[in-house]
Amino acid sequence: TGARPKDQPTKYSQRCMDLTEEASLRRDWARFTAVTFLFGFGFAVYSGVFQNFMRDELHATQIAFGITESLRELPGLLAALTTATLIAFAESRIAAIGLAITAVGIAVSGFMHALPPLIAITMFWSIGFHLWATVSSAITVALAKGKESGRHLGRMSGIAAMATIGGLGFATLGSWLLPKNAYVPYFVVAGAAILSAAIICASLTHHAHGGERQSMVIRREYWLFYLLTFLEGCRRQIFSIFAGLALIIVYHQDVRAMLLVQLVNSVLITITAPWMGRVIDRVGERGPLTLYAVGLIVVFIGYAVTRSVVSLYALYLIDNVLFSFGVGFTTYLHRIARKGDFTPSLAMGVTMNHIAAVTVPIGGAYLWRASGNYQLPFWVGVGIAAVSLVFTRFLPKGVASDAVQAA
User: Fold this and answer.
1) CB of 224 closer than 8 Å to CB of 391
2) Tens digit of each residue's pLDDT (9 = 90 or more) over 345-385
3) Is the entire prediction scored with pTM above 0.85?
4) Which end of the chain, C or N, has fewer beta carbons within 10 A?
């Protein structure tokens, strides 16, 4: 009568299976950490020199910068559709495909010496980049098993920032050792690092899979996530493009100066991002994202009124540190999303974000040229940050219950 069914494991065998799963999960965390680091390293090498490459090799104007950035972001508009077509693939496989495409495109970018082919290859690798960007957070949350998602997202942001330090350090060393305007080695090294990330990403196991998911999701109940993501895309494009261009075009900062400020920025993010993730886990998204919006208003006003290069660099660093609070958008969605909705809803958020990303760069560039005032786009940023502040107050107070988070 006390016999145990054949298919019921003993406590010992169950413990062995649990230990095996734990070891497998640790290996996946180690692999994904390596993937995040290698991608961050490669992309830092690329982005650290790209604007200077366009200025020095292509003699690009602010309009050319705006057109290139807008077209580069165009594939992001199709993020939800692209991810839906790959519904049969696990998130880690989608990420590996995206990383491989990104690696090839970035590696050959340095060989483009005219704007049309550069734009073409940039749009090509941007398809892969947006596949990776769409599912990377979903992989982190899947590996976290629904526990302390903010902390883990912040930790991965810290890893990416450490990688950026390495990538910018490499680029800075190259700026001293390589001949002036020798940009090809930077792009080749960047591509090789990202290709290594793709290979490792393909080896992730079931722990990195988000489970069964919908092909495409648009739900009224997620409206606040969509709106905040759209506004975030607007403000991020204004600052990430025009803050750098102001320093390079208006204040004539060279590649070494730009690499140095990005290096300092990455050190700060390495320190602050994990802490910000823990804060969001502890108090919820409303307070931190409110602080984020207020900080952005201050930063944009600063860029709109000051003409001190030192002050502009300080504001540049403050903005990028504040950006670490952006993990709150992901954790908020994870708290409210239905089962199977998380990854496709992230993809839809990327699409919403890129409605702004496609229009803001070219619109801001024309606004700059028509007014003759580089500071005007930052006044637009003040308005966008203010609207974001208003809607951030619609977020729920505190943190959701474990039951909601686990869902």
Assistant:
1) yes
2) 877 887 787 777 677 777 877 888 888 888 888 898 899 99
3) no
4) N
- Residue 29 in tokens: 């965390």
Q: What is the DSSP letter of 248?
A: I
Residue type, 403: A
Structure-block tokens of residue 19: 């230990």
Residue 397, phi then psi, degrees to nearest 5:
-75, 150
DSSP string covering 281-296: HHH-SHHHHHHHHHHH
CA 154-158-159 angle, to 5 degrees, is: 120
Identity of residue 143:
L
C-alpha span between 355 and 340 (Å, rounded): 24
At 33 the three-state DSSP class reads helix
Closest CA to 252 of 111, 60, 394, 55: 55
Sequence length of the chain is 407
Residue 126 has which token pair?
Answer: 């941007």
- Tell me the C-alpha distance between 220 and 218, whole Å: 7
**SS3 assignment, position 154:** helix
Contacts of 326 (CB under 8 A, 6+ apart): 232, 292
Q: Which of 168, 157, 190 lies closest to 33 in space, CA to CA?
A: 157
